[in-house]
Specification:
3 helices, 101 residues, 82% helix, mainly alpha, 2 domains, single chain
Amino acid sequence: MNKNKQNLPKFNEFAKSFESKKIEEASQMSSRKLIKATEEFHEAQLKLQQLQTEFVKTTKEDTAKREELKKNIITQHAIVKQKESIFAKAIGDEDIEDFEI
């Protein structure tokens, strides 16, 4: 019985390292398509946020700049929606069986 108690910590240590290795492997198994879609979606959202911040910072008297920014925000919003749909499709195409832990 004493021998089993000594083996228990070794087994627990093994189990933890095994599970952490499986999690690490699963986290690195995203396809290139998903990674690219994620990066592009993030960049598009960031650009939209920067345009919105710039729009808020402009004074109301600077109507020409505000109108230009408004037009750019609308255009960028359409780009974000397009990148979002590409991202959603990439997630749908991922093989989820690879991520089982």
